[in-house]
């Protein structure tokens, strides 16, 4: 790993909200005077009744529980819309770019957003939804998805967004788990020129969900769908019959805001529950600090609303900050690998926030697709979701940002609500591959397998020792599972499940999930480290590395390698890459097996499914071992990997 330092550019140092000294002082105070600190920070929100208490939590079994601002009252949608009306009713709140580049972009001002959300909220109310009810959203990336989130928040209903790429089975499981009586969907979605039959999927799912009473359907493509009498209603028709005003429901800070299902290392997906006050504060504060966001900046988080990144950084953070948020229906590389950069030029985007996997895919296509665009509007580049290999980081910085834009690598999780370890552009010198330093109130700790605290420059398992406002509050319907999953591995601490290194400067380097760490001949190694070395090679586009049982070494290293377009896979290249890794990291990192793979099994959010890769590497390719592959972006990838197993 490289420790090269990229200093804060002078313009950022001079103008940003925080510099290196003030960031350090602010962080120190957040931990020494947490009550005063957080009650001050809470003033950035608009409270119906301001809180007098900040955090009230314990990670110990006897009195386990997490509360923030527990006597405060507010409404999230009023914070994201109504309070901006006096000063920026005519400013664009949501800027929408369709999948097809020839489609006209849509602009929704704060005034228009208010009307749309109020009508949507009244439609939900007239369908019978009320405070505390769960409403499942299964939506494409259209403005109505954001309206739906805000409409739920307005009436105090709890939204549960299920990614529009999940199968009917996955959708049904999530509807049943939280006992949703309402579903919001669209006729169809659109992605990369194809349509996704959302309503038909809902119909299939609902065959297993008799509890669902009403389905609100957004007309998105105009495609033909079946409507079930008495159950299904069109949003546009219903919206005409309701008022354009809907007073926001006063909510306690600890009332639930949303559930979002996420996979753990065991069992079925967990319904991560976030509440009202702490989550919104965390979304808004981290969006402002990590990206030095100012109203007027065109902000683009290129995630899907089906993931926490979409919740926090497409909708809640930027709108709470009175921003202009770009919502994009499509994918970064369609119709051409220039699309993402063309959207940036078209809308004069100031900050783009995306995932390393997208960057690697684009990098593989070559620089010409980037260089064909201007990108002069860009000031900042963000990344999230997985460790970014220094190679992709440098490409993002140099080719995309022309050495001008700091890279904001944000480490966090569905469970944390928003960024936890991340740079601030005016305050933090960057190191490619490091998420850098903790956000206010975040106290990271690195422990060894037995839980002993490791100080100074070290490597181990990442825990957070205290609560922060954006922390999840429970697993829906299973509070004990919440406690068992996160607070028992290392008693009294939140365990992230991630491995982490801290360097001499106190910078944090996430090495990947701890279940991805392998042990070769007694040496612990981050699979991300080997991957990073492999992708440094000019012929390699992407690599995924897993461990497999090895008679002598305990575990061996199995590398799946995707080559750049036009490179021929052969034994000579296999040898070259093996030697390459030995030279980059050392002989202990020598891959035992390299399998060339035209594609890797990924979830629709772009996460590589290592569980499947581990099974194939182990030679356990039964259907039972491989598990459900239907939710993968491209399930056929798995067949190819199995048929071409190496080793
Ligand atoms: C990983 C996504 C390294 C990590 C917001 C974490 C990262 C998991 C980074 C959470 C990053 C996320 N660097 N690893 N910047 N961001 N991760 O819940 O392993 O989808 O535990 O939340 O992604 O994934 P989740």
TrEMBL record:
Keywords: Acetylation, ATP-binding, Ligase, Magnesium, Metal-binding, Nucleotide-binding. HAMAP family: Ac_CoA_synth. One of its GO terms (molecular function) is ATP binding. CDD domains: ACS. GO terms for cellular component: cytosol. Catalyzes the conversion of acetate into acetyl-CoA (AcCoA), an essential intermediate at the junction of anabolic and catabolic pathways. AcsA undergoes a two-step reaction. In the first half reaction, AcsA combines acetate with ATP to form acetyl-adenylate (AcAMP) intermediate. In the second half reaction, it can then transfer the acetyl group from AcAMP to the sulfhydryl group of CoA, forming the product AcCoA. ATP binds at residues 385-387, 409-414, 498, 513, 524. Its EC number is 6.2.1.1. The modification N6-acetyllysine is found at residue 607. Belongs to the ATP-dependent AMP-binding enzyme family. It comes from the Bacteria. The lineage of its organism: Bacteria, Pseudomonadati, Pseudomonadota, Alphaproteobacteria, Sphingomonadales. One of its GO terms (biological process) is acetyl-CoA biosynthetic process from acetate. PANTHER family: ACETYL-COENZYME A SYNTHETASE (PTHR24095), ACETYL-COENZYME A SYNTHETASE 1 (PTHR24095:SF14). This is Acetyl-coenzyme A synthetase. Gene3D superfamilies: 3.30.300.30, N-terminal domain of ligase-like (3.40.50.12780). CoA binds at residues 191-194, 309, 333, 521, 582. Acetylated. Deacetylation by the SIR2-homolog deacetylase activates the enzyme. It catalyses: acetate + ATP + CoA = acetyl-CoA + AMP + diphosphate. Residues 82-468 form the AMP-dependent synthetase/ligase domain. Residues 529-607 form the AMP-binding enzyme C-terminal domain.
């Amino acid at each position: 790993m490289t420790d090269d330092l990229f200093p804060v550019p002078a313009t950022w140092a001079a103008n940003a909200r925080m510099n290196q000294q003030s960031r350090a002082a602010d962080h120190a105070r957040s931990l020494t005077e947490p009550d005063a600190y957080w009650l001050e920070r809470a003033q950035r929100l608009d409270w119906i009744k301001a809180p007098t208490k900040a955090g009230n939590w314990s990670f110990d079994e006897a009195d386990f529980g997490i509360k923030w601002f527990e006597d405060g009252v507010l409404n999230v949608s009023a914070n994201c819309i109504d309070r901006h009306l006096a000063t920026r009713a005519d400013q664009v709140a949501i800027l929408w770019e369709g999948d097809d580049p020839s489609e006209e972009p849509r602009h929704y001002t704060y005034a228009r957003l208010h009307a749309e959300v109020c009508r949507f909220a009244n439609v939900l109310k007239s369908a019978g939804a009320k405070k505390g009810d769960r409403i499942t959203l299964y939506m494409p990336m259209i403005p109505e998805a954001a309206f739906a989130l805000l409409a739920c928040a307005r009436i105090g209903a709890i939204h549960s967004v299920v990614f529009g790429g999940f199968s009917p089975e996955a959708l049904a499981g999530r509807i049943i788990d939280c006992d949703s009586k309402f579903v919001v969907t669209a006729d169809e979605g659109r992605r990369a020129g194809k349509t996704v039959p959302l309503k038909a999927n809902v119909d299939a799912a609902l065959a297993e969900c008799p509890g669902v009473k009403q389905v609100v359907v957004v007309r998105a493509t105009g495609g033909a769908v079946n409507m079930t009498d008495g159950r299904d209603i069109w949003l546009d028709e219903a919206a005409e019959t309701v008022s354009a005003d809907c007073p926001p429901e006063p909510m306690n800070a600890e009332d639930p805001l949303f559930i979002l299902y996420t996979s753990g290392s065991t069992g079925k997906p967990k319904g991560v529950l976030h509440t009202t006050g702490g989550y919104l504060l965390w979304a808004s504060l981290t969006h402002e600090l990590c990206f030095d966001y100012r109203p007027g900046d065109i902000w683009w988080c290129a995630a899907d609303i089906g993931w926490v990144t979409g919740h926090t950084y497409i909708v809640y953070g930027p709108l709470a900050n009175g921003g202009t948020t770009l919502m994009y229906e499509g994918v970064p590389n369609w119709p051409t690998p220039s699309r993402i950069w063309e959207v940036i030029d078209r809308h004069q985007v100031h900050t783009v926030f995306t995932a390393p996997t997208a960057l690697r895919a684009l990098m593989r296509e070559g620089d010409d697709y980037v260089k064909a665009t201007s990108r002069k509007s860009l000031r900042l580049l963000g990344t999230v979701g997985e460790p970014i290999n220094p190679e992709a980081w440098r490409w993002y910085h140099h080719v995309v940002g022309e050495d001008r834009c700091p890279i904001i690598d944000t480490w966090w999780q569905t469970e944390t609500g928003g960024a936890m370890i991340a740079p601030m552009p005016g305050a933090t010198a960057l190191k490619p591959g490091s998420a850098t330093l903790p956000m206010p109130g975040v106290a990271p700790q690195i422990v060894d397998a037995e839980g002993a605290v490791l100080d100074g420059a070290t490597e181990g398992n990442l825990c957070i020792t205290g609560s922060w406002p954006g922390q999840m509050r429970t697993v829906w319907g299973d509070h004990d599972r919440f406690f068992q999953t996160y607070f028992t591995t290392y008693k009294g601490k939140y365990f992230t499940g991630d491995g982490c290194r801290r360097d001499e400067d106190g910078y944090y380097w996430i090495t990947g999930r701890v279940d991805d760490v392998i042990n070769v001949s007694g040496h612990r190694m981050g699979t991300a480290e080997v991957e990073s070395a492999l992708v440094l090679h000019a012929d390699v586009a992407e690599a995924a590395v897993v461990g497999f049982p090895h008679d002598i070494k305990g575990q061996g290293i199995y590398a799946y390698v995707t080559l750049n377009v036009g490179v021929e896979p052969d034994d000579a290249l296999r040898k070259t890459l093996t030697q390459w890794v030995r030279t980059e990291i050392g002989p202990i990192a020598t891959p035992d097996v390299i399998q060339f793979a035209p594609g890797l099994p990924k979830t629709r959010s772009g996460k590589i499914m290592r569980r499947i890769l581990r099974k194939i590497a182990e030679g356990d390719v039964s259907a039972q071992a491989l598990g459900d592959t239907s939710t993968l972006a491209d399930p056929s990838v798995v067949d190819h990997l199995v048929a071409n197993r190496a080793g």
